[in-house]
Amino acid sequence: MVILNLGRNEGQGMRLGKYELGKTLGEGNFGKVKLARDTHSGKLFAVKILDKSKIIDLNNTDQIKREIFTLKLLKHPNVVRLYEVLASKTKIYMVLEYVNGGELFDKIASKGKLKEAVGRKIFQQLIDCVSFCHNKGVFHRDLKLENVLVDAKGNIKITDFNLSALPQHFRADGLLHTTCGSPNYVAPEILANKGYDGATSDIWSCGVILYVILTGYLPFDDRNLAVLYQKILKGEVQIPRWLSPGSQNIIKRMLDVNLKTRITMAMIKEDEWFKEGYSPANPEDEEESVYIDEDFSIHDVSLEADQGSPRSPTLINAFQLISMSSSLDLSGLFEQEVRIWDHGSLLSLGRTYIYYVLTLFPYVLTSKIFTTS
Question: Which pLDDT score is estimated for 284?
């Protein structure tokens, strides 16, 4: 099996198979993301380390499963690439593409709004990528600045697909019914709790992102969630007059509460403002030198001191290994689960992420904005 080594000398990091783990890049509800170096090639990666006990406690096995499956499916220059999945009895390790420019959120929060030409390029890549995902049957459902990374060249990479919807999540009416997403970016039809189209709701979130990168602030914001949701449901947004007419028009058409008149992906790509300098990505140009096997095999990783002797790898199916814990059942995806993720005001609460389990907030349930069907 592959050995996980704990370095004891100064400057020596923890080893995960051929990867040497370094500094922590970020932390979340389920674990950490660490910088890693392939000791064979020297290439840098980001390793997402998930604590299985926390996944069990929060009953989020379905989200981990769908993120792995979705990233395996999507091969696009603007989607963070998943290279490999490793696991031990207590941890899951997702070996991901390392994006060295950080979050788009940090870029806007520290430097303010972007110049229109720069913002348009980012928006073009965003639409190109999200449209590709939709064509593959994947609907992100949590598009926001924090889930858009920027590399050193200014190109974006979309990440965090754990709330994404796949074809099997649609009900008989052809709609999705799970209330999820981040409050400032969520579409009004999701709040209305009558079912929604994943593509249409993603377009709304992309409109919010475009608004923020061109203005430096959120179109819908309030510390009181109930007030915030009412603003979104009514479509109460003030578009600054100092924005160019073309950008004002496309934002207005994306943040349209009327589903019949909201702009579509095809219409966005035909918009004159959008098309200026547009160079579509070609997923076929992506390198396939590293990939995930079709049977989703992963390595069983054991935590041991450095023995100095190699061992033969044992291949185990990812979900079989994760399911070694009897309480961690990955047999299905639970579309009925209701969850929202709030990051608060872009400039006030910043990087504080809070999961709101709706049953703990009677005032939300009382408002009948969020209910389960």
Answer: 57
Whether this model's pTM surpasses 0.70? yes
Is 62 a known active-site residue?
no
Establish how many alpha carbons lie within 13 A of residue 220's alpha carbon, considering only the half-sphere containing its beta carbon. 28
Contact in structure between 20 and 39 (CB atoms under 8 Å): yes
The annotation status of 48 as a binding-site residue, yes or no, is yes
Catalytic residue, candidates 142, 160, 202, 256: 142
Identify residue 316 by its one-letter amino acid code: I
Does residue 216 come out as left (phi exceeding 0), alpha (psi in the -120 to 50 range) or beta? left
Pairwise CA distance, residues 250 & 275, whole Å = 12
**CATH for the stretch 104-282+340-366:** 1.10.510.10
pLDDT at 171: 92
Confirm if 90 and 150 have CB atoms less than 8 A apart. Answer: no
Q: Is 2-99+286-322 a CATH 3.90.1300.10 domain?
A: no
Tell me how far CA of residue 223 lies from CA of 245, 347, 354, in angstroms.
30, 12, 13
Percent of the chain at pLDDT above 70? 72
Summarize pLDDT for 195-245 with one digit per residue, the tens. Answer: 999 999 999 999 999 999 999 999 999 999 999 999 999 998 999 999 999
Q: Residues 6 or more apart from 38 whose CB is under 8 A from it?
A: 18, 19, 44, 45
Backbone angles phi, psi at 72, to 5 degrees: -65, -35
Measured in whole angstroms, the distance separating CA 276 from the mean position of its chain's CA atoms is 27
Tell whether the model's pLDDT for residue 335 goes beyond 90: no
**Sequential DSSP letters for 303-353:** E----S------EEEHHHHHTTSTT---SS--TT---EEE---TTTTTT--
Range(s) of the chain covered by CATH 3.30.200.20: 2-99+286-322
Digit-coded pLDDT (tens) for 12-24:
478 888 999 999 9
